[in-house]
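Re: the 458-residue chain
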Amino acid sequence: MAKYDFDLFTIGAGSGGVAGSRRAASYGARVAIAEAVRVGGTCVLRGCVPKKLLVYAAHFAEEFEDAAGFGWSVGEHRLDWARLIDAKDRELDRLNGIYVKLLRDSGVAILEGRARLVDPHTIEISGKSYTAETVMIATGGWPSLPAIPGIEHAITSNEALDLKVLPRSIAIVGGGYIAVEFAGIFRAAGVAVTQVIRADKVLRGFDEDVRQFLQAEMVKKGVQFRTATRPESIERTATGFRLVVDPGEAIDCDLVMIATGRAPNTAGIGLEEVGVALNKKKAVAVDEWSRSTVPNIYAVGDVTDRINLTPVAIHEGRALAETLYNSNPIKPDHTNVPSAVFSQPPVGAVGITEAQAREWHQGVDIYRASFRPMKHTLSGRDERTMMKLVVDRRTDRVLGCHMVGADAPEIIQGLAIALKCGATKRQFDQTIGIHPSAAEEFVTMRDKLPEPVAKAAD
């Protein structure tokens, strides 16, 4: 008789939990997965998928305008936001059904309800207990909110995806990828957007040229920025809301959205009570094998706050299943992970930034190009594209590829393979480009930027 009810018990049916559970079951493990909301997790239900659908919708605003430059006469057009949200919801229902079917077809038992650890091998759901040899925590993250008066009046990205009526104006607090993506969506839909950021530029952590270039392009599209600004309170008014910001100024709007980051979803599931250590951000502390401080409890995805991207969570979940159930030890590889921001225009990046390269390498060569995309020579739109290569001068190895412009995520995905293979600038130069395309610019950049001039000491 088996010692435990299950070989693996996964808490959280998002991308990482589903991927790891299915892979483990395919190797013969007895697997259960618990989910408190709906199978699919943040990406499928509250993040990348619904957001990308809204981004697609937003693009049509400019496509209709650009068509005139190519000889098309486009009649009256307007966005039926409620109809868009209904269509989005139908697609999410479809995807939820697919995820449920994939799990069941793989032999994974789906348990509905909020799971809580009673001890390292016992999990309780709705008053019923289950035992497992191994536990995988995959509960993801949740929007975090600043502790300011009136914060209950604000929405997060969760609610923004379900708005039935568009506001006329919105203040978005935050400068990360969620904030800039929703700023683009709402602005394209005709909403007056004010973005409030603590720093001087959006997308902290990205290359400085990317940050500056994207923000300038967003301004062209009508997004207003309040930089070096912090929210102090939110008040309800007769016509909407008032966001009070330092130094005592106010922004009146129909809606306030907070997009200041996400926190690991670790509260209330018994982690610390059974000895699982959390770091200062309340993420599960794990080693290179995704093992927590309790030997039989592992964690993958955003709940570990390593690299909070869906494909990374999937990679970590599958690596764990290979290690535990297929005699194929795999450590998650977090080097040269490509990323994208579906802003308008979008951002794609892989590798390290110029600042990181100058800190970690003795000599760095920078190649950068900025140009008006061919499409806009006829559309007349004032939008530019920027591409950048960061190269190790000693080895000629390409350390980073960065792009702001149409199709950036699609282009960077291919370049990520090159960086994973250790490609050099010479190999980029030897690659024949596809003409006419924007992507060819990455293999035709020849002139290095001059070395930055050192600032004089005060």
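The chain has twelve helices and 21 strands.
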